[in-house]
Amino acid sequence: MKKKMMFILTYIWICSSIFFVDFIHGSTLTAPPLSVLVIGFENGYDLSLIANTLSDQGIDVTLVIPENIADDLHENLIDVEVYHLKDPHEKSIYPEDNALKFCESLFNDQELSQKVQEFRATITLFPPLRHDGCLLPWIKSIDSIPVILTRNAYEEVYAFERTGVALPILKGSFWRRIFMNFAWRSTSSNIQSNYVTPAFHIAKKYLTNLELSQDNLYSDVRLVLWGADSILRMDFASLTQMLVEIGCHHCRGSQPLPGELQKLLIQYRLGSIVVLLEEYYKSFIEEIAKKLSQGRQGQAVVWKIQESIFDEEKKLPENLYLWQNVDRQDLIGNGRTRLVLSHCTDMELLEIAFHGSPVICFPRDKQESKNAARAIELGFAHLIDDNNDRRSFTSEDITNFINTINTSMDYREKARRISVAIRDRLNPASDRLVYWLRYVARTKGDRERFLVASSNVNTLYEDFQFFLGLCTGIIVGVLLAGISFLFRYMLMSEKMRKSKGRYQR
Question: Most buried residue, 70, 369, 434, 445, by CB count within 10 Å?
């Protein structure tokens, strides 16, 4: 009897185990294995940062970039496989033309095709601008989930228009908003004709069984990653949770600098200035270093750039140090850093704000000028020149700005407050990034798409404006019609009067 009971209990236990295993395996809440393919034709540093963030979270990541930006990568990539697309021999000054050439290389690269088949990427992550017309059909052919990553304001507006996940908010006067809207429509039309259409034709040439048209190019896109932060700007209204803010996904505490560099910097009592500019400014940086206090009682200038910009025989100022293989966050967040000289791009400005360092901005375009204006509004930045014309400022001006910021605690205190505001949040950007990637991977096979943005969304204000415009149009139309009839009546009356007078004579 006991043996029979033991047999029955064992049988029940085995059946229950099989049932629960099948239930867990079939549950949509179980996280499937996640592998991410990151692809981009330009700005390799930003792409390598997000690839490194995903790798740090235990996700298999492969980064695909052109050979010409292979040197522009994050210095400390860990467990990220980097594949280089063959570099076209002929290059153009137009980014759309270069993107089309790399699109052709993407389809022709047999080695990449084999790697992609072996890797079996669950998700393919890429920027929208000058990438979508080529990559969206290619991603569909490899049965991966496309995820959009925006890295600046231009890509934001472009991605929001294509996907409908958010409504852009235009600011300023009525005519300014009208001008901005028409300007963007013109730019979008140029992108469509100069890149998207030719790229889609290239894709159709290689993917003969492509079940995708140019009109529904974004039909499979289920997630848009916003690579900025609400502290930096908030120029849109989100329409769905599938728009995820990940601006500071890579931000972290600073690590110790390389021993040799740390030994050089620690001897300067006034700390150090970090320079994140390109070689265009080498004469200015050299002059600034000379005008700063020298020796142990002075201030060091650390420039993250390749040393090849200066002749080997040329003697640099003793407080100027050029360093290449060091993470810029470790420089910005170093305890002895007093100031940063930067172009104030989105990613750089977020890192500077995260580490609480004052900054002097050298903007190169309108977007960087807006970032600089926002940083000045927050109180931890100084702007050199809106047009970034080297003739409009001198090294003496920059040195005076540096001395002003160094002697004032106001800049550093406001920078510290911004740093606390970014760090003191419910969950880090990296956690949001990984959660939503796993979410779209779990729900890939669902027939109903969850959290999809509604199409043709209009706000109450827009409806009111339309109603007001309609009423105004009707009133103006009635007035014009009345005036026209009155004017016609007067003309006809005058004509009849003159006609009668002529017959009387």
Answer: 434
pTM of the model: 0.81
* Count of other CB atoms within 10 angstroms of residue 388: 19
What's the angle, vertex CA 447, arms to CA 444 and CA 450, rounded to 5?
70
Check residue 165 and report its DSSP letter. Answer: S
Rounded-to-integer distance, Cα 300 and Cα 272, Å: 4
Using the structure block, give the residue that is written with the tokens 């001006």. Answer: 397
C-alpha 99/C-alpha 127 separation (Å) is 12
Asked whether the beta carbons of 299 and 292 are under 8 A apart, the reply is: yes
Q: Please, which residues bridge with residue 83 across strands?
A: 64
Evaluate whether 55 touches 81 at the Cβ level (below 8 Å).
no
Rg (Cα) of the chain, in Å, rounded?
30
Distance CA 361, CA 382 (A): 6
Q: What's the CA gap between 449 and 432, in Å, rounded?
A: 20
* E strands, 316-373, in order: 320-323, 337-342, 359-361
Give 145's strand partners.
Answer: 123
